From TrEMBL:
Protein's name according to its UniProt entry: DNA-binding protein
Domain of life: Bacteria
Keywords: DNA-binding
Listed Gene3D superfamilies: Hypothetical protein, similar to alpha- acetolactate decarboxylase, domain 2
Coiled-coil ranges from the UniProt annotation: none
One of the record's GO molecular function terms: DNA binding
Record has Ubl conjugation as a keyword: no
Limits of the PPC domain: 6-151
Organism lineage: Bacteria, Bacillati, Bacillota, Bacilli, Bacillales
UniProt xrefs under Pfam families: PCC
InterPro entries from the UniProt entry: PPC_dom
Species, as recorded: Oceanobacillus jeddahense
Length: 154
């Protein structure tokens, strides 16, 4: 487990427009502002959404992720939270979970998938970051998943 404390934070406020991909848009904003890590929170509306959840095997143990849930109708993005990080190839990545409300008032949630979440009207967002910390998302053999580790920035 990694824990880092910072004395300086930067806050970015922004909005994404109609047709832009939620996760790609957030990553673009981070690149434009030279952010390698940060916490994102947002609300808004999406034309379509794609997410997944854990699946269990016959012994009720975690067994990776279920097939993606793809909803091709406008939804309200009630709330989404995530961490901007650097992946194993040195590229920007985003680990994001969110809750949406469908037109029939049902609520669904999960691990959002990059490239599947197009903005309907707008998504307003806040990114909190610090130049003192870099988040790295790497595969952890003992867990069997990619996890984020926080390290001092060089």
């Amino acid at each position: 487990m990694s824990v880092k404390s910072t004395s300086t934070n930067q806050v970015i406020y922004g909005a994404l427009g109609c047709g832009e991909d939620l996760m790609e848009g957030i990553i673009r904003i981070c690149k434009e502002n030279n952010l390698n890590s940060g916490m994102v929170t947002c609300i808004g509306s999406l034309d379509e959404v794609g997410f997944t959840v854990f699946k269990l095997n016959s012994e009720n143990q975690l067994d990776g992720y279920a097939e993606p849930t793809i909803i091709k109708e406008p939804v309200e993005l009630i709330q989404a939270t995530g961490f901007v990080c650097i992946d194993e190839d040195g590229e920007h990545d985003l680990h994001m979970h969110g809750m949406i409300e469908r037109m029939d008032s049902t609520i669904q949630a999960g691990h959002f998938l990059r490239g599947y979440n197009k903005v309907c009207v707008t998504v307003e967002l806040t990114i909190v970051a610090s130049p003192e910390v870099t988040a790295y998302r790497r595969y952890n053999d003992s867990l069997g998943y990619k996890v984020i580790q926080f390290e001092d920035s060089i």
